[in-house]
Design goal:
This protein is α/β, with parallel strands linked by helices. The chain contains 13 helices and 12 strands. Helix 2 (35-50) runs antiparallel to helix 6 (165-178) and helix 5 packs across helix 6 (165-178). The structure holds guanosine-5'-monophosphate and manganese (II) ion (MN).
């Protein structure tokens, strides 16, 4: 199977040639890495190591506990707590793989260490409108996840024989989490073709699913209950609902990174609700997630109002306003979008 996704054959050939001799490589991904970010980065890290390269993996910050079972995750260097080591790796690298992001703004401070480096950059990503121009671009919006795209890149450079169970587990985790366990962004046969191929390496889907989704702390489950019972505001006329958590509430529930995972999706389970927001008060900003069903563009809404972006149905952004001001502004924006929300 060749020339998947309209990427020019010469790009694959160039990557194959680039990787034909031993190189120093850093694999990196976006801030607050999710399942696709970590699955893609670790999958690529393990693959490049198997090819014989000198590979490191750097993330801008820590990732949630439910991903701390992925093969080789202990090798990850976190930039925010290990800047010297990370910068040293970037400086010494010959090639830098940028996975699951296409905009240096997604790096949360780490971009200063990367954007001016004269290295060979390889980008593999599935977000719309790339803002980074790299030597080798594998940018495809249609795929479910970066992990799915990585598999196809390996097919096109004749490298699937190097895939093993660990790599397959990483890539499957990326596909599973970015499709909400195959409930969205997975209507293309290609996603299931890749999963079928990954299954041949002996991965156990029930085990992976359980490690990711049945691994929450009791506090997180109580936090979810609190969100749904006390913190969800519903606006039926705008087919919108949102949940917000102040820093005080986060403290009360002993909030840890990853505890917010998936909470933004719950309002979309309400009949008639097609747009959902989730606002978290951080030290100096508000972190925001948006999700939508159907054609309402969560990414456009986020870009227009909250310095963000993302996919049509899953986007994020931020605001430097005071928490209450930010929530009020969101509520006051809804009338302006009434027509699109009721389309
Ligand atoms: P999440 O809500 O899971 O943090 O993010 C959902 C999606 O929105 C991500 O996959 C990413 O594409 C996008 N996203 C999240 N935060 C930001 C942001 O601050 N800026 C941009 N451009 N995209 C974001
Ligand atoms: Mn992704």
């Amino acid at each position: 199977m060749k020339n998947l996704h309209n990427i020019p054959q010469k790009t694959y050939t160039a990557l194959q040639k680039l990787l034909s001799e031993k190189k120093k490589i850093v694999v990196t991904t976006h801030k607050n890495p999710d399942g696709d970010a970590m699955g893609s980065a670790l999958g690529m890290y393990l693959f490049l190591k198997k090819l014989g390269h000198d590979v490191s993996i750097v993330t801008p910050n820590e990732y949630p506990e439910f991903l701390r079972w992925l093969p080789s995750e202990k090798e990850v260097v976190k930039f925010n707590t290990n800047k010297n080591n990370a910068n040293d790796l970037f400086q010494k690298a010959e090639i830098i793989f940028c996975l699951d992001f296409n905009n240096f703004e997604r790096l949360s401070g780490m971009e200063k260490s990367l954007s001016d480096l004269k290295k060979i950059f390889v980008l593999i990503d599935h977000h719309p409108m790339p803002k980074i121009k790299t030597d080798m671009m594998f940018s495809v919006i249609e795929v479910s996840s970066t992990a799915e795209l990585i598999y196809d890149v390996l097919v096109n450079i004749n490298a699937t024989k190097l895939i093993d169970k660990d790599i397959a587990e990483c890539l499957f985790t990326g596909i599973m989490t970015d499709t909400g366990s195959f409930s969205y962004s997975c209507s293309r046969p290609g996603t299931f073709r890749v999963v079928t191929e990954l299954l041949k390496f002996g991965i156990e889907i029930d085990k992976i699913h359980s490690l990711v989704y049945n691994n929450f702390s009791a506090n997180r489950m109580k936090l979810l209950g609190y969100c749904l019972n006390n913190k969800m505001k519903i606006f039926p006329q705008y087919r919108t609902a949102y949940i917000s958590l102040s820093s005080e509430e986060l403290k009360k529930y002993k909030f840890k990174p990853g505890d917010d995972e998936g909470i933004v999706n719950y309002p979309l389970s309400i009949k008639g609700i097609i747009f959902s927001g989730f606002f978290i008060e951080k030290k100096d900003h508000v972190k925001i997630s948006f999700r939508s069903k159907g054609s309402f563009p969560a990414n456009k809404f986020s870009t227009e109002n909250f310095q963000g972006g993302g996919h049509l149905n899953a986007a994020g952004g931020k605001s430097e306003e005071k928490f209450e001001e930010c929530l009020n502004r969101f509520e006051n924006l809804l009338p302006k979008y009434k027509k699109e929300l009721n389309n």
